[in-house]
Amino acid sequence: MRFYKMFGMLAMLSAAILMVSGCAGDKPAAEKGSDETETATTADPTHGGWWCVEHAIPEEECSMCSASYAKACKEKGDWCEEHNRAESQCFICDASQAEKYVKLYEAKYGKKPPAATE
Ligand SMILES: [Zn+2]
Ligand SMILES: [Zn+2]
């Protein structure tokens, strides 16, 4: 019976969702082994070096931080002289350019990136 199979799967799925949301709502105990707190900070994507918090672009693609990437952009003619960054990364000229990087971040971490500091 296909109907019962599907129903069973749905029930399992909702149970899993309940478990996940239940866990997320529960604050983990503050008192834990002191050496376990260290690993949490290194796993933080904003400090892991992948994401350039300042410019809201992945570091290796950040034309303001990576000189080699900036050079490649200039060679391609993708450069905003006015703001000294890749035209495709010039959120000042075109704010919608930021969206593709926000999507990249969301795809990787499943949440919105931290607000750009610049
Ligand atoms: Zn940067
Ligand atoms: Zn510009």
From TrEMBL:
In the UniProt record, the signal sequence range is 1-24
Taxonomic superkingdom: Bacteria
For the region Disordered, what residue ranges are annotated? 25-47
The alphabetized UniProt keywords are: Signal
Write down what this protein is called: RND transporter
